User: Fold these one by one.
Assistant:
Number 1:
Amino acid sequence: MPIKKRDFIAGAAATLLMAASIGTASAQMELKILAPAAPGGGWDGTARAMQQVLTATGIGKSVQVNNIPGAGGAIGLAQFVNTAKGDPNQIMVNGFVMVGSLITNKSPVNLGMVTPIARITAEAEVIVVPATSPIKDAKDLVAAMKADLAKVTFAGGSAGGVDHILAGLLAGTVGLDGSKVNYVPFSGGGEALAAMLSGRVTAGISGWGEFEGQIKAGKLRAIALATPDRLKDNPTPTLKEQGINLELINWRSVMAAPGITADQKKAISDVIDKMVKSKEWKEVLVQRGWDDAYLPEPAFGEFLKTEQVRVEAVLKSVGLVK
């Protein structure tokens, strides 16, 4: 039976409308981003930067951020594993810190229980002291550690995370016992900052972006970066410049829920890919002092496996894990 022209046009229009609807739905996902830490820290900052960019670019239709702090991200990860299974609209921010804390805390959940999407940023680790501290540089800090390691207190993120590892490696590099470092973990950068500003700890360790505002305001003194080279337009010397052969870089990533389909994983991966390639995201990187460390699947999954082995070896080397 012949198809009338008007029927063909109507059918084609309906098909195009349906395709547009599907395209819009896939391009504008309604996302819930879990930041497994308290407000004010690196994961929270990353999640909210993602929320800002995804919303501003229209890549995300609506984007919510939920904070679940505790145990270096293990509590948030456990809830994500248990409640987000099969949900393609839920993602989680994590990174180096979680890799270390899960090992240190002997967590019953692990990163093999969720779906890897991509590594998105890297950030320089910085050691700071209150502006009123007599410690002026890394050499002064090391001298204080050698005089009485127990009296030198470090504030940072979760036990076993990148900040803790840097403190342990610093002690080990200068001939001290890394397992005996007096380290005070906090669930968020805001709490660590408060401890720094109140003078309750000797020094603080975190990503540059978390302390940058207080450094520029003159309330904190940056004494060393754990980077291979100095940051652009940043006068803070590296540990290596000060005779301490040590460097350590933090990274952050995005994971999706367990039990999603291959198509759902691709849809989330496409959203993150569009985000990291947007000019809005590149502006955020500059504003926050983050490096573009984008590594999508499947390379990210392989990196994650290798990194877990490497971090466990480092934790053992400084006595944080038996």
Number 2:
Amino acid sequence: MIFLNHNRILMSAASRIKALDASVVNKIAAGEIIISPVNALKEMLENSIDAGATHVDVLIKEGGVRLLQIVDNGSGIMKDDLPILCERFTTSKLTTFEDLNKIQTYGFRGEALASISHIAKLTVITKTKDDTCAWKTSYKNGKITSDSKPTAGKDGTVIIVEDLFYNIPSRLRSLRSSAEEFAKILDVLCRYAIHTDNVGFSCKKFGESQFSLNVRSEATRQERIRSIFGSQVSNNLISLDMQDNREYGIVENSGKISNLNYNIKKGIPAIFFINHRLVSCDPLRRSLFQVYSNFLPKGSKPFIYLSLVIAPANVDVNVHPTKREVRFLHEDEIIECISNKVQEELQKIASSKSFKPGSLVTNKLISIDNASPGTSSTSMNSAISKIKRQENKLIRTDSSQTKITNFIRSSQPKIHASFSTSIRTKPKPLLESDENTEIVPRRGTPEEEGHETLVGQNCSNNSRIIKSLLHNTYEVVQRERIDVNLTSIKSLKETVDNETHKELTGVFADMTYIGIVDETRRLASIQHGLKLFLVDYGSLCNELFYQIGLTDFANFGKIYIHDELENKEGLLLSSLLSRIDNLSSTNMDEIIKRLWNMKEMLDEYYSIELKGGDDSIQDVRINCVPLLLKDYMPPLSKLPFFIYRMGTKVNWGSEKDCLDGILKQLALFYIPEIIEHVDQDDVSVTQEIRTQAVSKTEYLSTVLEQVIFPTIKRRLLAPKGLLKDVIEIANLPGLYKVFERC
């Protein structure tokens, strides 16, 4: 006891109250604000967004301890402000305490850079739009270490933080591994990338060429989520929008939440932004998870992103050193409003589920993102990599896999029609004709304008039969690609871009082709994710070949034509047009004359070569047609109708309309022809016709699987008009609910 009392007397004598040294105070304050590299990153990131940056690049070394660099293209810092930049409580964002009631920016205390400078080596390079050069300044312990030096640089600010916690060894030892600290930084960046509109974000490790995160500034919210968390999340989202509620100070409430098809055991932590500030709000999180528990299987977790804008006067942002928490008025009432809205949206989904085919328009599909989703998705989903296998959510076919049938190149089957084609290097007739064949136009309905096809029929009173053999051979022509600068072509390309439906384009880019359903109605089936779709491949081909024609304008290959009956190059236009019903000789001559007058343009832009009309219009021959897609020959039975529509449906008086019209006719020409159904058990049908029908179907199936649909995956920008030609007919979770197995 005497020993203890003596010790107490000694402690009392040494415990006089005195003011702490300024350096100690600053280190303590810095330790409260900057706990780990991710806190430093968050403070600098918010400064960049406050400065109006449209792109933020982050470079990390050893988890942000050795190097943490952030580059933005914001407004920059004035040179006169650089001396006090890292002093505590210096800010441009508020003047009086009352300004906190209307604060609209992330930063407001003026402590972030000051705190960083006390525990790290800090360098700032900045340039405003009015400066002639950038200025480089270094800081230590809140003070500038040397005068600002002029240097080369772009508008904006570069902040370089090196050797974080170099003077606080205990804090340095408490940090986790470099990989874990980097994962924390990436997590915060991804959350801001999802929320912040019109700002692009990128992040990579020092010395690596591949980005861990890369989000375009113009990307939509759906695209940002897909780029970061992958299509498993973005495919199963619904929008959450609430009207403002002035009673509780709610100005705006929006977000993205997962539907009932998305449920995993180890979910992604909920993302909450209140007044555009990343915060954790446990009461709101628990309330929303409780709502989802009534709909999802036990233990499953939803995806929740929510942005809540509350009147600034109702929010206290100054309650936590790192600003990760805020307090707001009417908290219980606001949480109840949001929970009720989520409950309402989920009930709509649950009550509207049915087992009949649904239209594609009703579903939220994935989007095209030119960013690299794989890298950031891998990092962000590391926590959910070990997931229990769910048979009703298992995609058993990878759209990127190659089918074994693609390695089996069967010879082109013989098909009954009016022309014949073969590869000159190894002749194998593709289309054959006999003396009892004539070309007859098949009239379609008005809704199928341009989708008519010319088919061979047996007739006793047939007219003069075109017996010709069309050969094509692939030859590499050494010529440079022509750059087309026509305003009309650029305008047509812009129209295609503007009409693109990004979600539908994503479906086709990630699809798996299954097969033909009905060759008479031109229907095929494809799979995307867990869904099965029925598509009109005629409409798809029409759009595909139009876009190929527009992309390769004036750079087409050529398919040369040879008339073996007359042993001449090309086919007479008059002979082809004679196959069109009710076409007078006067109209026929007008069509030929119109095409002949435009022969130079047709040859230069479209590789449609016309010869022989110098002496007589009746002698005009078509020597070649354009090659739009290698390994695919257009249906040659449609050639007469192609010539006819070129002469009657194209507006030759307007440049844009003319070029567009010819491209549309080429696209119609290239659409696979309709194959009429032939009953193989009908004894009245000859064996020859039955065999030809089988050969045509087999050839069409091969071409669609190995040539056309792979090209659709690579090249098609699906327009909004194609939505009506794509119908969802089944999905795996729905089938499991009906049959409990597949």
Number 3:
Amino acid sequence: MTHPTIAVLGTGFMGAPMARNLLKAGYPVQVWNRTAEKAQALAKDGAVVCGSAVEAVSNADFVITMLSDGPTVDAMMRDKAVTDALKPGAIWVDMSSTKPAEARVQADYLSGLGFARLDAPVSGGTKGAEEATLAIMAGGDAAAFEAALPMLNAMGRATHVGPTGSGQLAKLANQAIVGATIAVVAEATLLVKQGGGDPDAMREALKGGFADSRILQLHGARMTSGDYTPGAMSTIQLKDMVNIVGEGELCGIELPVSKSVRDRFAYLCNELGQGEKDHAALFLELLARNGLST
């Protein structure tokens, strides 16, 4: 069986392991990254490392973007040299986390050029990317999703959640839950610690109970160990919280918990200077709020 060729634009924390899993599944993969060294590391896995995005998308059946935000994706997508190099029938799959409105505008733009586009953001962090267990929520044309499904399933579990923009809307919902859960896990951890208990024992006791979650077990452990090596950076979580609150305003609804979490991540990143740390570092904001040291 001949696999379609895939271009991966953006090989950072998430894009690199995703590209590796595509290679493991037998797909020819052409990669490009603004910081060339990050793409070059994939050569040993069998990727074709390209010197430009134009080179990477040439002859690709699918173009995956895994970039920092909507404007960055938009700039890439509106680069005429890039779109001129697209193969007829190529499908653009943006797996970045952006705003639903940005996804709709970008899909309209590519449609005008004769190309299909999916918004297919992911959840699962670097661990999910490495283990090919990402939750992938895809919005866009159903036929384009079916064509992309085997490729998407090489990186995790893909679900078509509706028309264009629906994938990004589902990702915002995911990030609202993630942000709020991190915040309350931080509070529970500090409560146990300051009360004279053992946060590690608390997490063990809650395993399998109604309050258990991956965030409790994985990020709770980060909070007690103080290891905030980024799987998902706090700056990215802040961007998502800003987008969540903004989307709520567009819908005419107030999201008080998300607003509070947004403000706490803003303080962590902008005032405490901890934006490059994992989003579990929200625990540091809670410590600072209470005048406590790490």
